[in-house]
Structure formats: structure tokens, C-alpha cells
Amino acid sequence: MLKFLILLPLFIGISCESDEDYDRSPINNLSPAAPVAPIQTGLQKCPNGWRYLSEYNKCLKATPELPWHDAEAYCVKQGAHLMSIHSTNELEEADKMVNNPSKPFFWIGLYRDTIENTMKFTNGDQIDYIPWIASQLNISTCTLANKAFVTRLWACELPNWPGVCQIYLSE
């Protein structure tokens, strides 16, 4: 058996070449210094019809014009929730999605839990950025936003506002 293993390379034509004989050119014939375009993974991972927001690695999608509870239910059916916000950039991106001058606000997932009397996001995110409008009257448990601030001035049952759903992408 040992003789067979020693003689096997001779029979199948294997030879030990030196490093000098090795062709080091790339297999794809591209120069090693050629720039490679970055892959925008979020754009590829977002479901069709959703917009990628790279700052938080999440996808956004506008809802039809619905009352707040129905907008959240619409998002849940999509495997999402109404969006949480953590920066002005997120508000601006969501505002671009709804982009309707006659409807300058959109529902977000921020609401007042009437049992605990605290503000929460429907997706459980921490509240770390809320640009409330000045002289907030807080007449509603649901929250509308635009590109600059959030407000609770309108009732949750108003059917004339779109919402913005969000899903986080896993790494």
C-alpha cells in the first residue's frame, strides 16, 4: 500500500512546481487594484416596495390613509410595526415616503400606554429622541409626525393620515 501512495503522483501526472512557476494572476482577469463596488445589502434585503434606511439598518414602507390602530394592524400584517424614530434623518426619510403636501403628517408607532401612563413604541424600541412640537396639548394617545417634529394633537381615529411601517434587518 505504501508503494502505491508513493508512486501514485507519477501515474496521475502530479508534479511539485516551484512558486516561480505558479500563475498568480486573478482568475477573473481583473487587476487586484481594481475597485469593487460595495454591495448595498439593505436594498437587496428589503421586501419589494420598501425603502432601506441605512442609519438604523431598517426598511420603511408607507401605509394607506388609515386610523392609527388600523395603520399599526396593517404594519403587523406585513411583519412590521409603525416606525420608531431615533433621529431627524428618520423623520425626513419617512416624510419623503409619504410626500403629500395636503397630508403633512404621518402616524408613527409612539403611543401613550394608558395603563402605565408612559410613552412607548409599538415595536418595543427605547425612546431616545422625540422632538415634540412646542405647547404640546397631548389630547391623544397616538402620535403623528412630520419631517421636523411629533405631535399628539389629533385623535387616533382620524382616517386621513398615512403611517410608516418599519422592519429591522438582521445582520
Write a structural description.
The protein is an alpha+beta fold and 171 residues long. The protein contains four helices and eight strands; from the N terminus they run ααββαβαβββββ. The strands form two sheets. It has a four-stranded antiparallel sheet with strand order 1-2-8-3. β1 and β2 form a beta hairpin. The N terminus is likely disordered.
Short description:
It holds the Pfam family Lectin_C. The chain is α+β, with helices and mostly antiparallel strands and 171 residues long.
Features:
171 residues; four-stranded antiparallel sheet
Task: Tell me the strand order in the biggest sheet.
Answer: 1-2-8-3
Note the beta-strand portion. 15-25%
For the residues shown, what is the average pLDDT? 75
Q: So how many helices?
A: 4
Fold topology:
Elements lengths: L1 H11 L28 H5 L5 E3 L4 E5 L5 H10 L3 E2 L5 H11 L7 E8 L4 E4 L20 E4 L4 E2 L12 E5 L3
Antiparallel strand pairs: 1-2, 2-8, 3-8, 4-5, 4-6, 6-7
